[in-house]
Hints:
This protein is 42% helix and 15% strand. By secondary structure, it is α/β, with parallel strands linked by helices. The strands form 3 sheets. It has a 6-stranded mixed sheet with strand order 8-4-5-9-10-11. It has a 3-stranded parallel sheet with strand order 1-2-3. α3 links the parallel β1 (31-33) and β2. The two termini are 21 Å apart. Bound molecules: adenosine monophosphate and manganese (II) ion (MN) (3 copies).
Amino acid sequence: xxxxxxxxxxxxxxxxxxxxxxxxxxxxxxxxxxxxxxxxxxxxxxxxxxxxxxxxxxxxxxxxxxxxxxxxxxxxxxxxxxxxxxxxxxxxxxxxxxxxxxxxxxxxxxxxxxxxxxxxxxxxxxxxxxxxxxxxxxxxxxxxxxxxxxxxxxxxxxxxxxxxxxxxxxxxxxxxxxxxxxxxxxxxxxxxxxxxxxxxxxxxxxxxxxxxxxxxxxxxxxxxxxxxxxxxxxxxxxxxxxxxxxxxxxxxxxxxxxxxxxxxxxxxxxxxxxxxxxxxxxxxxxxxxxxxxxxxxxxxxxxxxxxxx
Length: 309
Ligand code: AMP
Ligand code: MN
Ligand code: MN
Ligand code: MN
């Protein structure tokens, strides 16, 4: 169901609406999107522009989940308050973790962004990002692109530097014809095969991420479980490990997922007693997906916001 009845919403949201953030009818007819990016990491829009876009797409509950930073939250919240915009903003962050040689993304939702565990995690992750970016830059220099690091750094500005910035630089300078090719030829890793400018990152563990999220009062979600190229056996192992770490939810609905995939994720949720989240993983306007589009939780899913009472 894309449209959720008022009854499905956590009291925290209802209370905010009553306080004047938005109208109840607006909210109950709106869409929920719990995974999105701004230019505080590798998204193209500022937090304010993202909020404007969310309003236009009838989003009433939005989480900004930039990579290893919460910098967009205060900016977006101040804008929402100043302009009296009818959106409930959920604090969030997408944390890169290392598990069994895979890079697994854990989405933190509804956290205290000022909690010391989150602040420390961000410091460590940002250091890992800086170190990896420098090493990627050195490798790209050897590939014949000596300015890639400076250009990617400039593009990321004050935000989290990601491989997407390097990919965009390679694309803009005409070294590759698509972002995908930048990953396929230089930045990516598929199975054990690493490309020329791939650098193994020094991310935190899943356990460390979940612990920091819980310390800050939030919920931990495995982001886009279908995007790790895991076999069914390895995906199950990941979910078992996540559950052992006391993780809370799986992203059961992404725009690209078909009903069969959503059902498979729901089955894992049922089997391992996990809640369900959904989000577009919006980075920039494009033809294929947008904020809040094609997001539905299958019947029987326990919505993650039920944990936010
Ligand atoms: P990082 O967290 O620095 O490793 O950067 C990963 C980000 O790069 C992801 O969040 C995506 O936004 C982007 N990305 C990863 N793989 C691809 C790909 N094959 N094509 C385009 N963008 C990608
Ligand atoms: Mn990204
Ligand atoms: Mn991700
Ligand atoms: Mn994302």
